[in-house]
Amino acid sequence: GQNIDQPTEMTATEGAIVQINCTYQTSGFNGLFWYQQHAGEAPTFLSYNVLDGLEEKGRFSSFLSRSKGYSYLLLKELQMKDSASYLCAVSAYTGGGNKLTFGTGTQLKVEL
Amino acid sequence: EAGVAQSPRYKIIEKRQSVAFWCNPISGHATLYWYQQILGQGPKLLIQFQNNGVVDDSQLPKDRFSAERLKGVDSTLKIQPAKLEDSAVYLCASSFARGSSGGDSTDTQYFGPGTRLTVL
Lengths: 112, 120
Known about the structure:
heterodimer; A: about 110 residues; mainly beta; six-stranded mixed beta sheet; about 0% helix; B: about 120 residues; seven-stranded mixed beta sheet; four-stranded antiparallel beta sheet; 11 strands; about 45% strand
């Protein structure tokens, strides 16, 4: 099975930087995804890491360390619209294809 | 490019009734997924199709849930009979993935708007 752990809630100030951590334990690791989910909406894709290192995409960056089973999502220049749940999801090969298992999500609140 | 379509968006039923959800994936996407998301939790995979074959249905409560993807495109998920604990958002997602063992960006899943089910 898989075990994914991320903080339940975080609060940050508009304009600041916030780092959301995710640790995981899995077999057949095939990549790690971050999704953003606003209340009442579907998850939207933010980033994908399969190799160790940092992937940067505008204000959002995602880091992966496969040996440590660790990832983080970095959000810079926070805006009020970044208030949402951030889901860490681990992909693992299950024989017929890659299966995605989601963490419970980190609810980020951006304040003035 | 059109996204993943789902209907209905909302459904309210009494316990022990039946309900069906429909999903149309992004054109060209071979893999289709149904997830259940309970409030405050991450999505939980119910069933995964590659074309019209089932890849994983290990977490599908098969005594009451069924799903099909007959022509490898659209899919339906049915609950019969519904229980109170089935109240959740049912999300459909699709990806280009063809089922290879290596991970790459084709595994990226794109989600539809979901169906919010309330069982009374």
